[in-house]
Automatic annotation (TrEMBL):
Residues 1-28 are annotated as: Disordered. Residues 63-125 form the SAF domain. Residues 12-28 have a biased composition (Basic residues). This is SAF domain-containing protein. It comes from Kineosphaera limosa NBRC 100340. InterPro entries: Pilus_assmbl_Flp-typ_CpaB, RcpC_dom, SAF. Residues 1-11 have a biased composition (Gly residues). SMART domains: SAF.
């Protein structure tokens, strides 16, 4: 009897070996095959994504520019609150754009601009000595016959204006905003040429009525007395 059971066991084991079914059965083999297929598909998908990403263009280059922070009229002097920095597509950025906010502050608009509009060089009026003019002063061009006196003066200096006819000081401690180019080019104590020369002064409104008649209508015009550096 014992031998019979042993023989049966040997016969069963031989049958399992002949079928080639791995331990765990056909169901486990099917699952492993499915996992291999899913893994292969995932690897293939990653390869395709990497290839597409390599061929796709990257983010466009960006550059900084200055734009108006509000609607502003022509003649407006830009303050810090009037401008803002924006990022724009480098490919479409205008060559004349203003890229530095500090360079725009203090400039005067030659044309009106709308909120968000980029500031460009043609939109800004070239800077001049008038940027030094306060709201309580007026810019007055004063012709001066003595070119030697003009040769001593530079923008930023302060001068006294004296009537040649009366010897009276008609303007004291006035800021020089600019000097005529003809006078500056003449140099020395005796300039040449017949074109009138002079300078632009920052004059309080109360003194404008004194300086203009003396410089334009008075006999002999006016003379300049230049003050020391920093002298007010």
């Amino acid at each position: 009897m014992a031998m019979g059971w042993a023989g049966l066991g040997r016969k069963g084991g031989s049958k399992r070996a002949r079928t080639g079914v791995p331990r765990g059965g056909r169901k486990g083999a099917w699952r492993r095959a499915q996992l291999r297929r899913v893994g292969a598909a995932a690897l293939g998908g990653c390869a395709v994504w990497a290839a597409v990403a390599a061929m796709s263009p990257g983010e466009p280059a960006r550059e900084q520019a200055v734009a108006a922070a509000a609607d502003l009229p022509a003649g407006h002097r830009l303050a810090t609150a009037d401008v803002k920095l924006v990022a724009i597509d480098a490919a479409s950025a205008p060559a004349s754009r203003v890229a530095d906010g500090s360079a725009a502050v203090g400039q005067v608009l030659a044309y009106p601009v709308e909120s968000g509009e980029l500031l460009t060089a043609p939109r800004l009026r070239p800077s001049s000595g008038l940027s030094e003019l306060s709201k309580s002063e007026r810019a007055v061009h004063v012709p001066v016959a003595d070119r030697g006196a003009l040769a001593l003066v530079r923008p930023g200096d302060r001068v006294d204006v004296v009537s040649v006819a009366t010897g009276q000081t008609v303007g004291a401690g006035l800021l020089v905003l600019s000097v005529d180019q003809a006078a500056a080019a003449a140099g020395g104590l005796s300039g040449g040429g017949d074109s009138p020369t002079g300078l632009v002064l920052a004059v309080p409104p109360a003194e404008v009525s004194k300086i203009v008649p003396a410089a334009v209508g008075g006999e002999g015009g006016v003379h300049l007395a230049v003050r020391p550096d920093g002298g007010a």
